Amino acid sequence: MSKSDRWLLVAAACAVMASSPLFNLAARAAELTGFWLTTPHPELTIRPGQTDTIPLTLRNSNLPPQRASLDVSGVPDGWKWALKGGSSEIGAVIVSPDSTEDVKLELTPPTGAKGERIPISVRARYGSETAELPLAVSLSDAPQGGFELKSDLPALKGTARSTFSFKVTVTNNGAQENLVNFAAQVPEGFQTRFKRGYGSEEITGLPIKAGASEDITLEVTPARDAPAGRYPVAMAVKGGDASAKTDLAIDISGEPEIALTGPQERLSGEAVAGKEASFPFTVTNSGSAPANGVEISASVPSGWKSEVEPKLIETLAPNATSEVQVKLTPSERAIAGDYMVTVRATGGASQSAQFRVTVNTSTVWGVAGLGVIAAAALILGLAVLRYGRR
Fold first, then answer.
1. pTM to 2 decimals?
2. Nearest-5° angle of CA 110, CA 113, CA 117?
C-alpha cells in the first residue's frame, strides 16, 4: 500500500468517528459547563465625587435558563451604588442557555473620601448556588481628567487707571493634546486680553500637550469711570468636551481726578502792564475719592508777580468744585502782547493749565508819550521861527 493510500484510510476513519454519537458526547463533556459572574477589571481606582461604572458579565454555559438575583456588599457608608441593565436599575436577570447578560455596577464615593483596596463583593444567586465576584476598589486623589486652573494671586488691588495682570497656570490632565481656548467674564466696560507667559503677543488659544502646563497672563483694564469697589472676574478654558473655570477678583480703590478751568471756562484773559488783574479759576474733582491738600500755584514770566487765594484746598470731595482767585501783575515794562502763565493744582492728583494773558500798556504812558511828542514839536517850531529868519 502506498503512502497516499494510508493517508486516505486515516482520514476516512476520522470522519466516521466524528459522526459517531459517542464522539459527540465526549466532545460536549469536554466543554465548560456552569454559571459565572465576571468583570475585566476586578481591581480599579476611582476618584471621590465621581461616578465610575464597572462592567459585569453573567454567563450561562450548558445549563437551562437561570434566574439570578443580584446584590452588592461591602460598599462603605456614604457611598452611592446601583446595579443597572441598560439605563434601568435592576435586582435580577435571566440568562438563557449558552448566552451572556451584561450588567453595570455604578459606584460614587463622596467628595473627600479616602481608602485603599476597599473590598466590595457582587453576588449572583441562581437556584441553590451563588456566583460571587470580589472587587478591590482604591480611591485616588489625583486630579480628574480635563483642565486645571491655578492662579498665584486670585485677587489684585489698584485704581481705575491700573491694568490688572493675573498669572494663571493651565494644566491639561487629559490623555491627549488639546487646543485650549480662553475666555473671560468681566463687568461691562472692562477690557481683557490673554498673553502667553509674560510675552507681549495677544492670544485667544493655545495647544497644550497631555499632562503639560502653560502659564497664561490675563490682563484686565477697568472702565475709567469705574467707582471704587470689588469686581468679579472669571477665566474659563475649553478644549473639546473638557472645560474649566476659575474665579478671580479686582479691588478698585478710589482716586481723585483734578481739572482746572479758567474764567467762564476760558483759558485766556487780559491785563495791563504794572496793574494787578484777578482771574477766577475753578478746581473740579471728577474722581471717585476725595482730593486732600490741593495746592494752587502759578508760574509767571520774569518780572511778573502772582498770588493765589486760597493757596490750599484742604479737601475736595468727589464731583465737587472750588473757586480760587489767581492774581497776576505784569511787569511795568512789559510790552503789549500775549504771555503764557502756567496754573497748577497738586496734591493727591495734579493738573496744570496754560493760561494766555494779553497785556496792554497803561494809558498813562500813552498820554505821557503824547506830551513828549508835543513838547518836541513845540521846541522844533520855536527853533525854526528863531533861526529860520537868518
1. 0.47
2. 115
